[in-house]
Design brief:
By secondary structure, the chain is α/β, with parallel strands linked by helices. It contains eleven helices and eight strands. It has a domain at 40-120 and 248-285: Rossmann fold, CATH 3.40.50. The strands form two sheets. A four-stranded parallel beta sheet has the order 2-1-3-4, covered by helices on one side. A four-stranded parallel beta sheet has the order 6-5-7-8. InterPro entries: Bact_metal-bind_prot9, ZnuA-like.
Length: 410
């Protein structure tokens, strides 16, 4: 064979080999891109935990509001703004919890799919309480709650005032029908939560005060008359935003998260579905454990630092007597604080709960001259390690705090 033909054949084989290698590398890169996990940014630790459970084995979501930071007055750092800009999905509770995130989500996360969990169809939403004296308005006489019936938690007969919530979508919540929970004097027969995606709640004036007052972004000093919340900005979001403190809401939130993750990342949809099934089983176990933990202390009176626990109270029938603050960023008025102090003494309140996000000084002053003990409730899991296990630890930790502090000291 001529030498030039041999050289040409060798060159052709080299070219074919190089082309084949490039093709393999290109296909490999395309495959990797196809299976690359989405970048998911979450607002608060409980939402991050639920999302991390769904994404286990795929990727870790990013958390914006970490540690003891309060979502009510949160400010973005430059690195967090970059996280929003590069996100494929952002998951948050909504503007009523973190009003300062609303504008950045519209400008920085314009290319991301934004999931507002408070608008999830089927989610239970409860109205804000207008008065720190919950017992007088919501629960009547706690001693008449018939707690011997709580093995199945059918709450059908729990009248907590005169407001009806017949259509609050509770009938499928793990045996907690709550069909006739009345909470003030305004009827809420039309609160079907399937339409909350556009639910402004502007019409929900609870009692005599409208909820123009619950925006936590611009806290102002308290007024002495105790009516110090009328200049806030929640008239468009007049419901309690702490929805994750009901494990049944957490279940609905988890389903929403898994569904949307499957839509933007179909390559991992089966993983998300499997993880959701495991999480739902875990949430059922958590609810059963909490129910057993708080059963011995039902009917005991307690006061919370701020009105953040109503979803937990309703789910496990553990109503609070009152709150030191309605809003965590606004100091209570002198008159209201005096009434809370008197209530703690006169009703022999057993426990007053502080929160790790805020100084405990108000709690220490509130219990002076009373027999009340002091403990801590952590609605955000501020002191817990981030990750899939945080949500369960948060809910069970709250139940343990209630069970310990409200236990009969004798």
């Amino acid at each position: 064979m001529p030498r030039h033909q041999t050289k040409h054949s060798s060159h052709s084989r080299a070219l074919r080999s190089a082309f084949l290698a490039a093709t393999i590398l290109s296909a490999s890169a395309a495959g990797s891109a196809a299976h690359e996990a989405p970048k998911v940014v979450t607002s608060i630790k409980p939402v991050h935990s639920l999302t991390a459970s769904i994404m286990a084995g795929v990727a870790d979501p990013v958390l914006l509001i970490d540690g003891a930071a309060s979502p009510h007055g949160f400010s973005l750092k430059p690195s967090q703004a970059q996280d929003l800009q590069s996100a494929d999905m952002v998951i948050w509770v909504g503007p009523n919890l973190a009003p300062s995130l609303e504008k950045p989500l519209g400008t920085l996360a314009e290319n991301a799919k934004v999931i507002t969990l408070s608008q999830t169809p089927g989610i239970t939403q409860l109205p804000f309480r207008e008065d720190a004296n919950f017992e007088a308005h919501d629960h009547g006489d706690q001693d008449d709650h018939g707690h011997e019936e709580h093995a199945g938690h059918s709450h059908d007969d729990h009248a907590h005032g005169e407001e009806k919530h017949d259509d609050h979508g509770h009938e499928d919540h793990a045996g907690h029908s709550h069909d006739d929970h009345a909470h003030d004097e305004e009827k809420h027969d039309d609160h079907g939560h399937e339409d909350h995606a556009g639910h402004s709640h502007d019409e929900h004036a609870h009692g005599e005060d409208k909820h123009d007052d619950h925006g936590h972004a611009e806290a102002t000093p308290a007024k002495a008359d105790g009516h110090d919340h009328h200049d806030h900005s929640h008239h468009d979001h007049a419901f309690d935003p702490h929805i994750w403190l009901d494990p049944e809401n957490a279940r609905i939130m988890a389903r929403e998260i898994a569904e949307h993750l499957g839509e933007i990342d179909p390559d991992h949809a089966s993983v998300y579905a499997d993880n959701l099934a495991k999480l739902e089983t875990s949430l059922s176990d958590i609810s059963a454990k909490v129910d057993a933990m708080v059963a011995p202390v039902r009917g005991q009176r307690y006061v919370v630092f701020h009105d953040a626990y109503r979803y937990f109270e309703e789910r496990f029938d553990l109503p609070a007597t009152g709150a030191i603050n309605l809003s965590p960023e606004v100091a209570p008025g002198a008159e209201r604080f005096g009434k809370i102090q008197a209530k703690i003494r006169d009703l022999d309140v057993r426990c007053v709960f502080a929160e790790p996000q805020f100084e405990p000084k108000l709690v220490e002053v509130a219990i002076e001259g009373s027999n009340a003990k002091q403990a801590t409730l952590d609605p955000l899991g501020a002191t817990l390690e981030n990750g899939p296990d945080l949500y369960g630890e948060l809910i069970l930790g709250m139940a343990e705090s209630f069970g310990t502090c409200l236990a009969d000291p004798s």
